[in-house]
């Protein structure tokens, strides 16, 4: 993972924990409405992909265990991981792109309801993503994958030479010479790996995205509703299709790019179709970025505009993340695919303990506050969910008191200790197992390996019935907590 130059080392610092009375009187543990649904408390576990589905995208026992464990901590809201809306193979990522996925998702919804004793509302994050390939071997790329163009021929002064010879000529060039012959995009395909972009309108299926995505998202939302899941979160964040439409890098000229209005058009059309399908009484919101955190990307000013548009359109909540883009990702090794959390924007998405002067905690608070104020000034009360490095009651409460957010999200802290909100609520904050923000879990995610927390393997190993990962080394769920 990318690290800031300063490399200042931070320890988790939750501050003082509240007494039961203080917690009971707090904003954090007060209810909030998301459209027609009420969260009992303003605590939220954002989406985290744990790579536990079957290769065909079905819910497994491991998936049920993962969400059951979070539900036992009774957060106000719990979001099911990014779940694919298309009926295409996507490895062990959950899917909702066909009715055959409904029974598994229904079991998941029942499990969460049972484990939280009805206290937690369950949402599902619906995602679309474009194709990405592994970084190719140089020889294979130049001999097979690269399409030889007139431009290459002209630059090599080889108009009349047969293609195979041109390829051999390219093979004989060093990196610097290739820089002069290949286009920026071809160099990217060679050095990072081929990746489809929403601006590739020369590809019919990319050009067509605005026509197919509203229906695909609407179908997925309808299945979520049928499965008994309490609401839908449209994934408009990070490195994926919808965030790429919102990004300033989207220069499509078909009315779905360029200006702010053009970039937000498809996300609004998707929402409108989803709303039409699920009706007014079913909570639908989105997760999007307060800042792309990349050169030339979307800034908080754009995100303020998007927030108002989403609120005006009738979204029931806005969950804000930041960064997590492909554009500044680290070059993968040959044979591996780029991972969007390896550059500075990745760091902004999941800030770790080696940080800069600001530190890893609460980097998203100020931008969220600006977005919330803009939404409110426009006359909307749409709840804003703030996430990023939050692991203490005082900071959470301060976010709410200062008007920088309405709901507090904690992803890694909730993984480290799924009972933490409950412990704090019961005045037992001292018992919270604190996330160290060293991103062991994120490393597993990068390799698409079953995600676990390193802290789970340090205590209560004699607990009966513990499940371990296939290598027998890691427990698959957090230690139990007896109230
Ligand atoms: C293992 C892992 C998987 C994640 N998967 C998703 C995901 O599916 N969708 C999403 O929007 N964010 C995902 N995230 C980002 C988190 O939701 C969250 O925004 C980020 O970790 C920062 O919050 P935190 O500091 O509370 O952990 C993931 C994070 C981790 C650590
Ligand atoms: S592995 Fe555990 S302690 Fe480390 S960052 Fe992830 S959740 Fe936090």
Feature tags:
483 residues; alpha/beta; TIM Barrel; 2 domains; eight-stranded parallel β-barrel; 36% helix; 11% strand; binds flavin mononucleotide; binds iron/sulfur cluster
Description:
With 483 residues, the chain is of the alpha/beta class. The protein has 2 domains: 8-130 and 201-457, Aldolase class I (TIM Barrel), CATH 3.20.20; 138-191, no CATH class. It has helices at residues 20-24, 61-72, 102-115, 138-145, 150-155, 163-171, 175-181, 184-191, 204-207, 209-226, 241-246, 260-278, 300-313, 344-349, 365-377, 393-401, 412-416, 420-425, 440-446, and strands at residues 8-9, 32-34, 37-39, 43-45, 77-84, 121-127, 231-236, 284-289, 318-321, 354-355, 384-387, 407-409. The two termini are 37 Å apart. The structure holds flavin mononucleotide and iron/sulfur cluster. The site of iron/sulfur cluster (SF4) has 13 residues, from helix 17 and helix 19. Iron/sulfur cluster binds next to helix 17 and helix 19.
Q: What is the number of independent domains?
A: 2
What do the pLDDT scores average to? 96
CATH-defined topology of the largest domain: TIM Barrel
Number of helices: 19
The structural class is alpha/beta
Estimated share of beta-strand residues: 5-15%
CATH superfamily of the largest domain: Aldolase class I
What would CATH call the architecture of the largest domain? Answer: Alpha-Beta Barrel
- Major sheet: 8 strands, parallel, barrel
Q: How do the strands line up in the largest sheet?
A: 4-5-6-7-8-9-11-12
Q: Tell me, what's the shape?
A: globular
**Would you count the extended β strands for me?**
12
Uncertain runs are none
CATH top level label of the largest domain: Alpha Beta
Which small compounds were modeled alongside the protein? flavin mononucleotide, iron/sulfur cluster
N- to C-terminal separation? 37 Å
């Amino acid at each position: 993972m990318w690290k800031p130059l300063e490399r200042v080392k931070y320890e988790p610092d939750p501050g003082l924990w509240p007494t039961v009375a203080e917690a009971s009187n707090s904003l954090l543990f007060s209810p909030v409405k998301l459209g027609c649904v009420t969260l009992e408390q303003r605590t939220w576990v954002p989406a985290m992909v744990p790579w536990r589905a079957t290769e065909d995208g079905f819910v497994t026992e491991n998936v049920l265990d993962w969400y059951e464990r979070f539900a036992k901590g009774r957060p106000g809201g719990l979001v099911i991981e990014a779940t694919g809306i298309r009926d295409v193979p996507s490895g062990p990522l959950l899917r909702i792109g066909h009715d055959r996925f409904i029974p598994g998702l229904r079991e998941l919804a029942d499990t969460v309801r049972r484990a939280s004793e009805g206290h937690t509302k369950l949402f599902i994050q619906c995602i679309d993503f474009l194709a990405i390939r592994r970084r190719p071997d140089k020889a294979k790329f130049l001999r097979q994958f690269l399409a030889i163009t007139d431009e290459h021929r002209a630059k090599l002064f080889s108009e009349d030479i047969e293609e195979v010879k041109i390829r051999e000529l390219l093979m004989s060039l060093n990196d610097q010479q290739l820089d002069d012959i290949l286009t920026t995009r071809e160099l990217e395909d060679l050095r990072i790996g081929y990746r489809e972009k929403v601006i590739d309108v020369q590809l019919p299926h990319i050009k067509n995205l605005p026509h197919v995505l509203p229906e695909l998202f609407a179908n997925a939302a309808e299945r979520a509703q049928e499965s008994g899941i309490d609401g839908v979160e449209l994934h408009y964040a990070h490195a994926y299709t919808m965030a790429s439409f919102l990004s300033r890098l989207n220069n499509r000229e078909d009315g779905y790019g360029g200006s702010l209005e053009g970039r937000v058009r498809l996300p609004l059309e998707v929402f409108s179709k989803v709303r039409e399908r699920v009706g007014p009484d079913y909570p639908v919101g989105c997760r999007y970025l307060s800042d792309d955190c990349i050169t030339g990307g979307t800034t908080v000013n754009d995100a303020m505009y998007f927030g108002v548009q989403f609120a005006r359109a009738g979204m029931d909540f806005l969950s804000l993340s930041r960064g997590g883009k492909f554009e500044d990702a680290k070059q993968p090794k040959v044979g591996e695919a780029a991972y969007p959390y390896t550059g500075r924007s990745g760091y902004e998405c999941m800030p770790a303990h080696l940080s800069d002067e600001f530190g890893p905690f609460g980097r998203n608070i100020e931008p969220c506050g600006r977005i919330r104020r803009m939404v409110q000034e426009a006359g909307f009360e749409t709840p804003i969910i703030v996430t990023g490095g939050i692991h203490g009651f005082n900071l959470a409460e301060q976010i709410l008191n200062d008007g920088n957010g309405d709901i507090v999200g904690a992803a890694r802290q909730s993984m480290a200790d799924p009972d933490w909100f409950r412990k704090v609520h019961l005045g037992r904050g001292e018992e919270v197992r604190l996330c160290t923000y060293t991103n062991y879990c994120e490393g597993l995610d990068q390799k698409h390996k079953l995600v676990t927390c390193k802290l789970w393997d340090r205590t209560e190993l004699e607990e009966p019935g513990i499940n371990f990962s296939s290598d027998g080394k890691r427990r698959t769920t957090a230690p139990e907590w007896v109230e």
